[in-house]
Amino acid sequence: MTDYDLSDQVVAITGASSGIGEATALACARAGAAVSLAARRAERIEVLAKRINDEGGRAIALPTDVGHRVQAAAFVERTQAELGRLDALVNNAGVMLLGPIDGAPIEEWQEMIHANVFGVLYCTHAAMPIMREQGSGHIVTVSSVAGRIARAGSGVYNLTKFGVGAFSESLRQEGAPLGIRVTLIEPGAVATELAEHNRPEIAEQIHKTFADVTLLEPDDIANAILYALGQPANVSVNEVLVRPSAQAR
Predict the structure, then answer these.
(1) pTM of this prediction exceeds 0.70
(2) pLDDT tens-digit series, residues 152-208
(3) Rounded CA gap, 113 and 162, in Å?
(4) Is 227 a catalytic residue?
(5) Environment class of 66 (CB within 10 Å of its CB; exposed 0-12, middle 13-18, buried 19+)
(6) Whole-angstrom Cα distance, residue 39 to residue 176?
(7) How far is it, in rounded angstroms, from Cα 98 to Cα 202?
(8) What domains can you pick out in the chain, each with its CATH number?
């Protein structure tokens, strides 16, 4: 991996309890950034923060449900208050609950919109005034290849990720005159816990679909995020699509 220097920067990361979020926190901390970690699973981010601090980095764990507006705002505001500034927000928290639209449990739709949409909106809303006042900042949102290609069996997940992509482009245009960069990261299939949160029959189908594909690892996406964050101030990496080499769509 290319070395990027994030010394003296503060990076706030949502969904940091596992997978891409955890890998991104470690990558940013090892590049010199102080990191704040948000997730609902408090014990996991506390363990991760201790690991980073024990390695000589600086991390704070802030248990947060980003889909709740007050909690999301508090996460961003406490990041600035406790770490001194906010250079980057990585909107990574998300849920992928697949299955047919017909007969779907509505609660699954609500959970995805809560995390995938409102989580991004609320954290971004809280971060923008801080970054505007600084005259700099970077908002990275982790979307999905599902934000580019809709398929039967993933309609509402597609809805959330297509929406995040549109929001990110509008945000990029608003942020450009303010010195705020915006990046959309679109992973293909990654070896994380996301699939395991589905109903058993859906999880089994996901595994069958990718049985012959060597999946991406969370570190692969963390490297893409670090690449975007590590560019000079005059370079804005707006969109990164990363698939496993054997993933056709």
Answers:
(1) yes
(2) 999 999 999 999 999 999 999 999 999 999 999 999 999 987 777 888 888 888 888
(3) 12
(4) no
(5) buried
(6) 29
(7) 7
(8) 10-242 (3.40.50.720)
